[in-house]
Write a structure and sequence with these properties.
The protein is α/β, with parallel strands linked by helices and 429 residues long. Helix content is 45%, strand content 15%. It has 16 helices and 11 strands. The longest helix has 20 residues. The radius of gyration is 23 Å and the shape is elongated.
Length: 429
């Protein structure tokens, strides 16, 4: 077969109903597509069998993680070129009651069979999380999910995140470094929470201790950080000892649902609520409300997806669910605000920092690509490929407004109605 690329291009264009804006290079050395465009490399016809047995995102993800497909050229450009077509096709597919009856899909299956052959499904790459049974977001299941993502080696995370070890959206100024932007994000949160000497701060999902260290060192807060990751906790404790802050910070391996030593003056939740699960959002909001003193503040920093007309369905990204954040769920920002209000909070400020996350992700990808061999040694070849794709694709999703990220400031306003906030808000700017 000396024309595999042309046959694949034709097949893709028939399925998508549009011209393919990228080139394809196939395992036989053939190429097809617009000159000068980024190249999607199909290294092995096994990738086609993955698509046959699991059409769509999961089949493509398995082929990517296994190294059977790759990109020659600008990964962001290729993802951006494909994004509009693929997402548009996805929206149309949601309206199709019986997608198997779609003649284009039937033709695609026949074409893949002719090119890829009929063989048993290839086993998934080792990095994939198998489909779990039982209820979502039990404490045991959440702990396993967190361990899959975070307990992959602190050295690997240090390579990607840099010295700040902050794994959430930074807050950028033109020309600033990643370290500056992460410091500015932590400081912005401290100012929004109006932290002062001696305040008790609970940092849920405390990660490697960056927020705890900043709040204790710069604002004199007494911080309790909780995480489900033992590797994160060990790193944070060592870091805190080196900073001489053991008298101000306690790090626990503990589920936030088990915290009982309130009241706290403030709670920070930075990139943690995405792991909670929609079925537990009310429990999450109720627990944080319970743990705050009257007048206490919550800063909820959370990724949000765009809302849909039918919000009754369970929304899951198969690639993210199987390879990145098992059981992770995103909710629209309006749903999060409503849940916090139903728990008793008064929501006082919402700031969208969507573009900031795209910038952050691009810097993380730069760090990974600058030392890809070491990243592979510190994890696995498949894990390094997972991270490269998920971070680059996420950056494109933020840039195209498919997802966003918001900081929500909420107050446990006392019965007197005195919120403790100044008449002119945003004094932290």
């Amino acid at each position: 077969m000396a024309d595999a690329a042309l046959r694949l291009t034709t097949l893709a264009e028939e399925l998508l109903g549009a011209s393919l804006p990228v080139r394809i290079r196939a395992w036989d050395g053939s190429e097809s597509g617009p000159p000068g465009a980024p190249v999607l490399v199909v290294r092995h016809r096994r990738a086609l069998r993955r698509l046959l047995w699991r059409p769509g995102e999961l089949g493509l993800a398995r082929a990517w993680v296994a190294g059977e497909i790759d990109v020659d050229g600008d990964l962001y450009e290729l993802l951006d070129l494909l994004a509009g077509i693929v997402w548009e096709r996805g929206e149309q597919g949601k309206k199709t009651v019986h997608p198997v009856r779609d003649p284009r899909l039937r033709a695609a299956v026949r074409g893949l069979l002719r090119i890829g052959g009929v063989l048993p499904p290839p086993p998934p790459p080792a990095e994939e999380v198998r489909r779990r049974a039982g209820p979502l977001h039990t404490k045991r299941r959440d702990k396993k999910a967190i361990s899959h993502h975070y307990d992959v080696g602190n050295d690997f995370y240090a390579l990607v995140l840099g010295p700040s070890m902050v794994y959430s959206c930074a807050y950028w100024e033109d020309g600033g470094s990643l370290e500056d932007a992460q410091r500015d994000k932590l400081d912005l949160i401290c100012r929004k929470l109006a932290l002062k000497e001696g305040d008790r701060l609970l940092d849920v999902g405390c990660g490697w201790g960056s927020m705890a260290v900043h709040a204790a060192r710069e604002y004199g807060a007494q911080v309790t950080g909780v995480t489900l990751s033992r590797e994160q906790a060990a790193y944070a404790r060592k870091r805190i000892a080196e900073e001489g802050l053991t008298d101000r910070i306690e790090i626990r391996v503990q589920d936030y649902r088990d915290v009982r030593d309130g009241p706290y003056d403030a709670v920070s939740s930075i990139g943690m609520a995405e792991h909670v699960g929609i079925v537990h959002y009310h429990e999450y909001a109720d627990q944080l409300f319970f743990l705050l003193r009257p007048g206490g503040r919550l800063l909820n920093h959370q990724i949000a997806r765009r809302p849909e007309r039918d919000e009754s369905a369970y929304h899951v990204d198969e690639f993210i669910d199987r390879y990145v954040f098992p059981d992770g769920e995103l909710a629209p920002v309006g749903r999060t605000i409503t849940t916090l209000e139903e728990a008793g909070f008064e929501v006082r400020d919402v700031e969208s920092i969507r573009e900031h996350y795209a910038l952050t992700l691009r810097r993380w990808v730069e760090k990974l690509e600058a030392d890809r061999r070491r990243a592979t040694r510190l994890s696995t070849p498949g894990r390094a490929r997972v991270w490269r794709l998920y971070m680059a694709a996420s950056a494109v999703s933020f840039e195209r407004n498919r997802i966003g990220v918001n900081q929500i400031l909420a107050v446990k306003t006392p019965e007197s109605g005195a919120s403790g906030l100044p008449l002119r808000a945003r004094t932290w700017n």
